[in-house]
């Protein structure tokens, strides 16, 4: 007695978490066994805007432009001559990190030649509770350039 395994896709499950506006880490290409002919891939339900499925490898890649709660997508491999198998991808796309920076001088208003203290505040924008927000960690960094009549003032 010879037992022949049916068509299969490996890996059977994958998980992807991304953020709007940032490229996702592409999924692993599928290894298809037990199919006859070239294997092509489809997915259901449809991927969020900005992501795509490579029909010849099953790889999901791209830069999402819309959020999506964790959703199970079914990838179906179809052999050109025979064989069908499925695998799943759990995919979530979080909202982009949104920051606001405010720069305030004290005293305000100030006079020409007067010393001022500048205070920068960086905060994450408030979003509805249903919208996931990726919070950054660490200290903000950057530079401040002063301008007068459109020209950067040197030495300040």
Compose a concise summary of this entry:
By secondary structure, this protein is mostly beta strands. The protein has strands spanning 8-10, 13-19, 31-33, 39-44, 51-53, 60-62, 68-79, 84-94, 99-106, 117-124, 147-148, 151-152.
Set down the secondary structure blueprint.
Blueprint: E1 8-10, E2 13-19, E3 31-33, E4 39-44, E5 51-53, E6 60-62, E7 68-79, E8 84-94, E9 99-106, E10 117-124, E11 147-148, E12 151-152
Number of helices: 0
Distance between the termini: 86 Å
Binned strand content: 35-45%
Which structural class do you get from the secondary structure elements? Answer: mainly beta
Strand order of the largest sheet: 2-8-7-4
Order of H and E elements: EEEEEEEEEEEE
Query: How many β-strand runs?
Result: 12
Classify the helix fraction into a percent range. Answer: under 10%
Describe this structure in words.
- The protein has 156 residues and is mostly beta strands.
- 0% of the residues lie in helices and 44% in strands.
- It contains no helices and twelve strands.
- Strands 2-8-7-4 form a four-stranded mixed β-sheet, with no helix packed on it. A two-stranded antiparallel ribbon has the order 1-3. A two-stranded antiparallel ribbon has the order 5-6.
- A hairpin with a 4-residue loop joins β7 and β8.
- The protein starts with 7 loop residues before the first strand and ends with a strand.
- About 3% of the residues have low confidence.
Short descriptors:
two-stranded antiparallel sheet; 0% helix; 4-stranded mixed sheet; mainly beta; single chain
